[in-house]
Every structure is written in structure tokens, then in C-alpha cells.
Automatic annotation (TrEMBL), chains A, B, C, D, E, F, G, H, I, J, K, L:
This is DNA starvation/stationary phase protection protein. Residues 18-153 form the Ferritin/DPS domain. Coiled coil: none annotated. Transmembrane segments: none annotated. Pfam families: Ferritin. Belongs to the Dps family.
Length: 156, 156, 156, 156, 156, 156, 156, 156, 156, 156, 156, 156
């Protein structure tokens, strides 16, 4: 059986891997939600919002890969399956069907806000047990807060 | 309210949009399953399988985008949310945790086989109502069957 | 004198070359109309519409080249001269002068709609006589219907 | 209604915008004529002439865009519609059908010669009222005269 | 022993794999013949024909790879060995030694014509048993017919 | 001490170097103003305006470098320090704080208009003393007037 | 009115936004000072110093954009106007006119030293209130200290 | 008739052209054999071997082109037709059908070994009569021996 | 003599420069060890391991350059000479000669593990005296731990 | 015999073609002189001067091509043969052998100065007869004066 | 004074540097002759010959740089000045004025033939005294003989 | 155990492998020495020398890889470990600490001179036993002698 001797103590590993697993689920869901609205947005800002959402998708996919591989690097199996994401995501339910552009922007403001709040908790939680993982989470938070600003400004 | 006058009759539209929506769910799940195993595979073929899986992810993501936008182009809202994928995918349950490389390859052989079987049904179902959608589904099937061969050969 | 022995029978060649010549005229006119509005659009969505129209121009130019060379490959001389386009295009008259962005989007919705309707007839007409030409026309229709969706959503 | 306060006086604006509108029509027609012969040329120099013509198309398309946007920048709506081009171009009628390579080269020599003569008049006419527009027309003339030389040399 | 459960019935698989194997042999031989003349052509059109032939080589090599891998994807071993090609190709014997440019162009017109005729039969034969393979063969036929036109026009 | 023997007479050099130094200050300030609004714009056109402003920044930075190095090439030291820019710019005061998108576009229309008016005077002033410097200023004016059109059209 | 609910408390936000606004002003001025000397440097090391200074400009421009957008992401309007920079920069006055290369290098050593000292204070000040902003400031400091070393070594 | 006055004497030309013609046949066959196994390999090392074989194909194709054009440059017509290759290659018969990965690697070890042995004889034979051709053959031998090592190490 | 006034106190500088000098030696040795095994690995995983090792070399070379220049930026001369590396590296002795692939992977697991352990100590040691250097060491540790995971998984 | 009907009168053509032919000879010689010193420069500024001289070569080669083709476009045969250059260049004799870096820079200052003086006369001479040729000569003068500044500053 | 202790004995150095200096003069003249005909060629093969000549220019320029720097590396000053080239080149006089395409090709056949004959003598002369220089001359000869073949074939 | 049947006799193999192993050690040490001085150089030529040294590093790294893989291709295990390099290099001891630029250049002149002398012996030694290895060593010597010239000229 595959066992990795982690550079962290068991207690620290538990804290850090929970933070990373939570981040993974949030980021995968963010990529799915952003794509969902990318396809369903309607209205005079269609093209602007459609394109901006693909930047969110790119950011979310890259970071989800980094976080999952960081999890593996610490010797803990990451879980990014659809059912896990559907259950564990910190983003609220996205309604089905077409969505007008103002609502679309608002949905992203809410989704990013929810993920950022949880990311900041993870940044705080990982500082002591593993500054390497924390540094990754800090970088993710910076990118998400930049996206958050742009969607807020778009509806400002 | 947003209504698009589709180039297809109502009956044809129903058939085609069901095929496209089904393909969308399968392809998103394929991308998530391939990533899951990309992160969790273990064994002497780790690097080969790890890299090959990212090619599957790329293929699945590109085609899922094409299929969803084709759906929208016909005037039907596509649904690619996590919960929809978790419930509707044609791929069986992927077990959690580390997976040895032979099992990993076998999982992909099964997953691709399941999706291909449903894709071939969709190719047949869309031929009459919409040859444009059918052509897209044929191209997807060709790519999936190529991947299917490579994973079969890897475990051959 | 230059005569090409076509792979098609005379009757089939007549059907197919008429479809291709018609598609050529429509696509050249689409590229000219899109450029005309690209230059004349005015309003709060100026930049979005201005940029989107250049994507239509790129699509229309590439497909017009493919269609004309397909015509030549079957041994029939293609005709893409200005006067031929002015007379034979399926797109209605584009009014001169500045155009506000909502009207601009609407003009494209109409122009694309008109061309798509004729393309679908050509897809049907060429299926039996020449599946190779049909496959080209199917690909063009897919691209035009995607553009059609995006302009409809923009005014949705 | 959209009105731009031009940096030019009314009289100067009239002179300059006529020069630009004339250049626009000539350049669009040059791009269409070059494509027409690109598709219809036949003979031992087919490949050379076919490729050289695409360079003319590229040059003509780039400059037509610059000229039309310069027109808009001065506050005058440019007109590049098919019917306008068919009526107003300075290039003589291009016969339909296949064309042998020597005739093809000669047709371009004539077409470029006609456009160049009109461009040189526009260069002279715009010198006083708007050196900025003149500079653009000078650059276009340089490119067209280079193409003119190459087609003359090809039949020399 | 390596056995793949094909998505096609045995009868359909036999038809389709024969079409693909035949296409493979023709395309490899086309690449060899085009290279042979690329090296041996002589005359005032040397450079044009020399370069055009390398485009044929590129097209033939890419499609031969696609066809062979499609064969494998259906569970049938492809055969592209020199002896198989020498015996099974649909292209007539290419004479050895230097070849003047007019003859070179004529040789390609004949070689492409022979391959195209067999490709069109394969397109017809695969329509029912496997639209996925047919779609690949249609795309190949389109490319070959474009090359066929250009060599015909070169000697036109 | 560093003295360059200029190709221009003293009188001409004075005229030309004043024109270039003035252009340098205007262009640096334009780049700072465009960045300021790039960061502070708010509203439904946020993304469009935000991106368009970065194109202004790129244009202004490239031209300021060309103008300053032209100044040096004539043997006159250019001055692009913050205090010099703050005092000498032809652009009016930009208010601090967030700015809604319509005001943002209007600010650029005004800023570009002010710089263009001064540039046209410089084009006229340098024609006799140094056609080389004039040619550079003409090219800058063309780019600024193109940007001016696009912002006017955006608020048109 | 545009109000962003910041992820930081009011006290923390005040500390962090002051640090970011100060960094913004320093970095913009650094880019202007480096350009000023890039244009005015004279002496046997002209080319080396001229090129090295453009690397400083690139670094300073990229980081100023990151810092300003970070400020906006926290809900505080950044101020990068010329007058603000002229007054608030931590870099001493740069004398006008030509500058010999040794003095030029010394000027950069001093300018970078001044900015670095203030950056290190900002790194310390932001550690508690916002590790995300601190991480950005740490990265900037690393780049500036690398440039500082290279200019010191150049005059060493 | 086309006759080139070779820079070599008749006797030297005979030696050198035989060496080059022999190398041409070996290299074309090497490219066909490598592709054959690229398509037919099966087993746990499928992906590694499949990819490595395409590097052999690239090497063999590039060198075969160089050798054939060197032949032509000396005034001797090269012969790379399928039948010539099938008869004259120094590589033993490749069996048809699927091949397991260990056998696949062994086949390449043998094929490369056979070609290298003949190449070394050609290097020796051409040293005196034509150091220019020898230098080309030396470069080819270096590349083949590098590939030979990698396949030996793969089965080591 | 060359003296740099460091931004750190003498005590802090001693701690930080020892950490950086130690990291430099470890990273250079890691690049040499990875190359050594890149050349000497033998076995069925030859190609996978051979390629993965070049990624380690790239990572180690980039980070060694960053660390050495960081050392210089603090005013302390870095030492990366062969003898210094041979004596001071934290990696155990690599045996000479060919190495089978399983041993090769194990050697990297050990080498990376040894370097990571020391890096984590350096991360802890530099936190107080210099967060800028610490941030660089954290980024290096993240990359090394990712490589560590992949080699562990390869032998898992 | 090859005769081109020039767009210029005979008198104007004589003036313009003499200017262009003179520019051609100067620019070719400039490229040869710059290469000569590129190879022969010696001294502490070797690398800086060596690299800067290759930028002069690039500039001179590009402009010589433009000028010669402009000459041909006007129907006058350009002459860029070595003997013509050796006799007609406006650049003084470059001494043979190694050259120290200060002398090398001085040689370029002189060579560029001589060519610029003649270029400015050509700019004046061509203004009336052909503004298109004048515009090309103005652009060349701008580039040469920029190089002139940089070599003056290097020895300043 | 600058003296380099050459790796060659005085006698060997004399032989080798004469060979390199001779090659330098021939290659520079070849680049000038090819450009001269590139501009002056006329006739139905204008475009083919015009483009092929630029490939000769590129080859001749690259090799002349290599040869001159090889000369410098041996401690002997290379001489590539116009007068040296005009006197010492092995290429016969190129007549002035327009040249029809057949003559143009013939001129290149002769020019390349003359240079190749001298290059082969240099290859023989340098074998013993400096195999490093010989290897460079062998590579140049291979490229020139390839060009020689293509021009012979063009007129064949 | 891994044994490769070398294409060389035992005696020849011994001679060639010693030459290659010696070259490997020299080239690795050259890369380490060049990096050491790249980091430690100080003085007015800092930037020039710093950059030139990275070109030496690139050259040395590429050639060391080629030489080591050539060694492996002949069936002999290469040894590039730090201790082997520290003991066996032909380059003298590089002193620790900062180094002024003139000394830095001199160190490279000496280091390159030492390696070149040994390389020329290896070129002579390998001519008979293996012209393939000799050709590689000749190419390396050419590159090193070019670098040697540039550092000599820099201190000339």
C-alpha cells in the first residue's frame, strides 16, 4: 500500500490537508459555476461577461490543480469528484436556465465572496503548521480578490 | 424573456437538445474523473498515465464547451452544474483514494467505453433532425475512441 | 481551354456548384456587412460590438476562401466579384451612415439568420450529390449559428 | 444623434473625406479582384501568381481598414458596402471565368495602375487640408507601387 | 493476447477496416511519390513544383497517421510496411530518374486522381457501418481534391 | 561636457525641441491619466473601458519613448520627470476617487482632444525646420485621433 | 455610490491601504526616474546603463499595476496622478539634463535604496492586517533588491 | 537532357552516390518501420514507446531528405520509391500485427543496429572521395547511435 | 574594495546568508545528481525517468540562480564552485555507473528528501531575519516537494 | 526590352532615382563598415559595441532593400554591386586591422554623420517630385539619427 | 597592442587564415550579387527567382559572419570592406541593369560554381592545419552545393 | 547486467571514452566556473560580463549533455558528479569572493584556454578510432574558441 512519510506532524497534516481539500472543492465548483454562466448569460453586456467568466475558469482550473497536487505532495489523497464537489462546495446553488447579465455579475460577486471568506480562514489556519501551503493559499486569495473587485466594479 | 427562434422544429429540437445535454454531462464528468486519477495514480507507470490523463482532460474540456455552446446556439439552456453532473453522468462511480496505475488505466477504459456507447447513440439520434449537431458529435466520438484505444493498448 | 473532369456527374455538379456559388456570395457579403458596421457602430457597447464584428469578418473570409476553392476543385469557376455579390447576396440592404449599437446587433442577427437559412438548404441539397461539399457547408453552418447565438444573446 | 467635432474645417473635411472614401472603395475592390483571380488563375505560373495575389489581398484588406477608421476618426461615416464598391471602384470590369496566368498578371498590372493613379491624386489633394491623412495615403501608395512593380516584372 | 472489443459488428468492421487499410497504403505511397518527384523535378518551374510537392507530403503524412490510428482504435492492426505499400498502392508506377516539370505535374494529377477515385468509394462504403470513419475519409478527400485542382491548374 | 552638433540650425532646433518636449510631457501624462482611470472606473462598462484604457497606455508609452529619444538625437536633453509633467501637461486635472464609466469615457475624450489640438500645432510648427520630427508627430497624431474616435463612439 | 465591503477591518484597511498607496507612488516615480536617465545618460557605459534602466522601468510598471489593483480590490481608490507622484515620492529630486554614466548608476543606487527602505517598512506593517498584501510587497522588494545589487555591482 | 557537371570525378561520384542512395533507402524504411510499430505497439510501456518512435520517424524523415538532396546536388538522381525501399533496405522484415512493447523496443534496437553498421561503412567509404558527403553521414550516424542507446537502455 | 551596506543587521545577515549558501550548494548538487542519473538510468522506465529528471535539472538550475543572486543582493558573495559543492552538499554519495530505473527513482526520492528537510529548516530560520529570503525558500520548497511526490508515486 | 511607364515625369524621375541610388550605395556600405568593425573591435567595451554594431547592420540592410525596391518600382534599375559601392559611398575609408573600442565608436559617429548629411539633402530634393520616396527617406533618416545619437552618447 | 596567441603554428595559421579570408570575400560578394539580381530580375519566373535569391542572401550572410568570427578567433583580423570585396572576389563581373530570369538563374549557377570550386580547395588546404576551420568550410560547401543544384535544376 | 555491444573495438573505445569523459568533466566545470563569476563579478563592466558569462553557461551545459549522451551511446557510463568534476577538471582553482571585471574576464580567458588545449588533443586522439565522436568534439572546440576570442577582445 502507498504511504508517504509527510514532512508534517499528524496534527499539522490534518489541519493543512483539510484546508487544501476544502480549497479544491471550492475551486472546482467555481470553475463549473463560471462556465455555467458563461454559457447562459444574456443581455447587453453578454460579450464582456462571457469573456470575463472564461478568465475565472482559467484561474480556478489552474489553482485547483496546484492545490490538489499540493495535497498529494503532503501524502494525502485529494478528492475532486463531481459528487464530492456537489456536496461540499461553499458556493450557493446556481439556478438553472438563462440568466440576465446583471444577475450573472451578481452571482459571481456572491460566489467569489463566499470562496474568499473560506480561503482567508484557510490562510490563517495553515500559517503555523505549513507556511509552504499557506503561501499557495495566499496567492490564490490574491487572484480571487482581484476577480472579486472586477465583478463588483462591473455592477458598481 | 429570452426566446430564440430555433432553426429546428420542436420535435427535432427536443431530440437534439437531449443528445447535447447528455453529452455535456458526460464530458464534464470525464474531465473531472480524469483529473481525479491524474492526481491519485500511483505505480511504475505514474508519469505516463499522469500525462496521458491531462490529454483526456484537455479533450473533454474543449468538447464540453463546444457542446454547451451548440446547445445555446439552438436556443436551449445548457446545464453543467456539479449536482447535475453528479446525478446524470454515464460514468460509474470512481472510488476515492490512491489508485495503482493498472487500475487507473482500467478505470479510463471503462469510463471512455461508457461515454462512447452513449455518444454513438446520440450520433444516430441526431442524424435526421440536425446534421450540424451530428457532425459535432461525430468529431467528439472520433477523439474519444482514439483515447479509448490508447488506454486499451496501455493495458494490452 | 481549361476543362476539369469532375468527380461528379453533370447533374450532381450543377446542384453542388450552385450551392457553393451561393454560399460564396453570401459569405463575401457577410464579411463586407460586418466590416461596414464594425466601422459605423456607435453607443455604449461600441467596443464589444466592434470587436465581435471582426470575429465575424474573420470567420466569413476564411469560409469564403474554402468555398471558392472547393468550387474550383470541382472544376467550376467561382465568382466573387463586387457586382455579383451586390446582386446575389441573401442579406438585406444595410443602411448607410452611423448605426447605434442595438441596431447594429439586430442587423447582424438578421444577416446571420438569412445566411443560415440558405446554408441549411444547401446542406440538404448537397447530401446526396457530394458529401464532401456537404461536410464543408455543415462546418460553416455550425460557425454561423454560433455567431448567431452570440448576437441574439447580446440583444437578449 | 452622433456628431463629432472634427479637427478640420468643413471645406477641408469635405476634400479629405472624399479622398478617404474613394480610397476605401478602391481598396475593397482590389481585395475582391485579387481574390477572384487567386481562385480562377490557370497555367504554368499558377502557384506563383496564386500566392502573390494573396499578398495583394492582405495589403488591400489592412489598408482598407486603416482608411475606413481614419474616415470615422474625422467624424465622417465610411461606406464599404458591396453595392457602393460595385459602382464606385476605379478598377475596370474583371471578366468572369478561368483566366490564364499571363492575363491574370496583366489584369493586376492594370488594376494596380488604376488605383495608384487615383491614390497619387489623393496624396496631392490632402497635403494642405490634413497631413495626417496624407501620410496614410502615402504609405498605401508605396505598398501598391511595390506590388505594381512585381506584377510588371513578372510579365516583363 | 491483445483483443479489442470493437464498437462495430464483425461485418461492419470488415468493411470499414478494409477501407481504412486501403486508404493507409494509398496515402503512404502518395507521400513517397511526392517526395520522389520533389527531389527529381527539373525545369523552369522547379521551385514552384518542388515546394508544392512538400505540401502534398505533409498532407499525406498527417492523414496516413490519422487513418492508421483510426484503424487501431477499431481494434484492427494497420499495415504500413514498405512491401505492403509497394504491392497494394492504387498509384501507378513512377518512373525512375530526373523528370521535367510538366511531366512532374502530370504525374501528380494522375496519382491524386487515382487515390481520390478510391477514396470516394471508401466514403460511400463506410457511410452505413461507421459514420465516424466516414467523416475522416471525407476530410481526406476534400484535401486531396484541393491538391488535385492546384496541379491541374498548374498544367491548365 | 557633452555637446552634440545638431543637424538643425539654432533657430530651427529651438522650435523643434520645444515641440518635442511639449509632446513628451503630454504623452507621459496621458499614460498616467489613462492608468488612473483604468484602476478607478466603475459601472456596467467597466471591463470594456478598463481594457481600452490599457491600449491608450501602451500607445502613450511607446510614443513618449520615441519622442524623448528623438529629442536626444537632436542634441537636446528631454525632461520627463514627475514634477515637470505635473506642471506642464496640457491635460486638465483628473479628479481623485472612483469614476463611473460614462464619466471615464468623457474624461478620455477631453484628455485626448486637448493633446490632439496641441499635437496638430506641433505638426504645423515642425514642417519647415525638421520634416523628420514632423513625420514622427504626424504618426502620433494619427494614433491619438483613432483613440479619440473610439472613445467618442463609445459615448455616442 | 460605489462602496465595497472590504475583507479587512477598518483599522487594518487603513494600515494596508496606506502601505499600498505609498508603494504605488514610489513605483510610478521609479519608472519615470529610470526613463529620464535612460534618455539622458552619457558616457562609455551608455549602452549597458541605457538597457539596464529599461528593465527597471518594466519591473516598476508591472508592480505599480499590481499594487494599484490590489488597492482597488480592497475597496480603496488608488491615486497615481502626476501631481500626487511629484509630491509623495520617496525618491529624491533627479537633476535635469545629461548625466554621465557613473552618476546615472549612483542615482539608481540611491533611488532604489530609498524605495527599498520604505518597502521593508510596508512589509512589516502589513504582516498582521493582511498577509495577502504583504506577500505582494515581499515579491516587489525581492525584485527591487536584485536591481539594487546590480547597480551597486556596476559601480563597485 | 539534364546533366550536371559534378564537382567529383566519375569514380568518386560512383562511390559517393552509392553510399547516399543506400542511406536514403535505409532511412526511408526506418521511418516506415518506426511508424508501423508506433501504431501496433501494445503493453504497459505503450505511451513511452509510442512517443519515442515518433522521434525516430522525425529523425529519419529529416535525414532522408538531406541525403536525397545531397545526391541530387552531386548530379545523381535519388530513388526513394516504395518498391526500391522494399527491396533494398538493410532492415530485416517487420512482422505484421500487434506487437508487445518489449518486442517493439527490440525491433528498433535491431533495425537501428543494422542501419548504423551500414552507415559506418559509408562514412569510411566517402572520406576520401567527398568529405562534404562524409560530414553529412557522420551527423546521421551520431543521431542514429543516440536513438540506438535509448532503445537499448529501455530494454536494459 | 566592494562592500554593500546590507538591509539586514549583521546577526540577521549571518543567519540568512548561511541559509542561502546552504541552499545554493544543495541545489547545484541536485542538478548534477539528476543529470548523472538522466544519463545512466537503464530499464523499462528509461524514457519516463530520463525525461522527468530533466525537469528536476531545470527546477534546480533556476532556483540555484535565484538563490545565488539573492545572496549577492544581500551583499554576501555566493560560492557555487565544484569543490564547495562536493564537500557541502546535503545529498548522499551517488554511486558511479549504470543504474536501473527503480534504483534511479529511489535515489531521487532520497536526494529530494534530504534537500527538503534542510530547506524546511532554512524556511524556519529566515522567517524573522528576512521574510523576503524566506519567501524565496518557501517557493523552492514547494517545487521540490512536488517533485518528491512524483518520484514517490512512481515507485509507489 | 523591359520598360516601365513610371508615375513620374522624366525630370522628376531623374532627381528621385539619383537620390535613391545614392542612398542605396551609402546604406550597403554602412552595413559592410558596421560588420567590419563588429569583427575587429577590441577593448573593455567590446561586447557593447559588438552588439550595437549588429543593430546598425540590421537597420542598414533593411533600408537598403526598401530603397532598391523603391527604385525598381519607379522603373529604374538599382545598382548595389561591390565595385559600385566601393567607388560611390559617402563614407570615408575604414582602416584595416583591429580597432580599439573608442576609435570604433568614433568611426561610426563619422560614418553615420556622413550618410545623414547626404540623406537630408535627398529628403529635400525629393519633396516636390515624389512625396512617396521622400517619406521612405525621412523614415531612414530618423533611424540613422537615432543610431548617431547612441554612438555619440557612448563616446560622450 | 592586441595580440592573440593562436592555437595554431605560424605556418598553419597562414594557410588557414588565407582560406578563411578568401571565403569571407567570396561570401560577401555572393550576398551582394544575389541581392543585385533579386532586385533586377524580370520575366515569367520573377517571383520564384526573386524569393530563391533571398535564401542565397541569408545563407551567404550567415556563413560570412561565421567565417569572419572564426578568423578573429584564430587571432587574425578579417577584412570585409567593399573595396577588398570588389577586388578579391572569385565571382565574375555582374552586368548592370535588368536581367531576364533565365540569365539570372544562369548567373547564379556560374557564381555558385566559382565559389564552390574555391571552397573545395580551401577544404583540402585546411584539413591538416586546422580541422575545426575545415569543418566550418565543409558545412558552407554543403549549403552552396545545395543552392547550386536548385539553380541548375531551375534552368535544367 | 547492462552491456552494450559497442560499434568500436575495445582499444578504440578506451581512447574515445576517455576523451569524452575528460570533455564532460571540463565542460561541467566550465559551466560552474562561469556561473560563479556571473554572480561575483563587480565593476563598470558588470552587466556586459554578467550577460556574456550566461552565454558560456548555456554553451557548456548543452555540450556537456551531448558529450555525456555520446558516451552512453558508445556503451560507457559517463560520470558528471560533483566530486569527479572537482578532482578532474582541467581548469585551475577559481578564488572565492567578489572579483573585479578585468580579473573576471582574465579568469575566463584562462579557463577557456585550458579547456581548448585539452579539446584539441581529444580531437586529434579520436580522429582514427571514431570520426563521429571527433565531429562532436570539433564542434565544441569551435564554440569554445569563439568564446575565447570574445573574452580576449574584451580585455584587449
Amino acid at each position: 500500500m502507498y504511504v508517504v512519510k509527510s514532512p508534517l506532524s499528524d496534527a499539522n497534516l490534518k489541519t493543512v490537508s483539510e484546508a487544501l481539500q476544502g480549497a479544491l472543492v471550492d475551486l472546482i465548483d467555481l470553475s463549473l459555476v463560471a462556465k455555467q454562466i458563461h454559457w447562459n448569460v444574456v443581455g447587453p453586456r453578454f460579450r464582456s461577461v462571457h469573456l470575463q467568466l472564461d478568465e475565472v475558469v482559467t484561474v480556478a482550473r489552474q489553482h485547483s490543480d496546484t492545490v490538489a497536487e499540493r495535497c498529494a505532495a503532503l501524502g494525502v489523497s485529494p478528492d475532486g469528484r463531481a459528487a464530492t464537489v456537489a456536496v461540499g462546495s461553499g458556493i450557493g446553488v446556481t439556478p438553472e436556465g438563462w440568466v440576465d447579465d446583471t444577475t450573472a455579475v451578481g452571482t459571481l460577486v456572491d460566489a467569489l465572496g463566499a470562496v474568499i471568506a473560506r480561503m482567508r480562514e484557510r490562510v490563517a489556519a495553515t500559517e503555523e503548521p505549513d507556511p509552504v501551503s499557506q503561501d499557495i493559499l495566499i496567492g490564490i486569495t490574491a487572484d480571487l480578490e482581484k476577480q472579486h473587485w472586477m465583478f463588483q466594479a462591473e455592477n458598481g
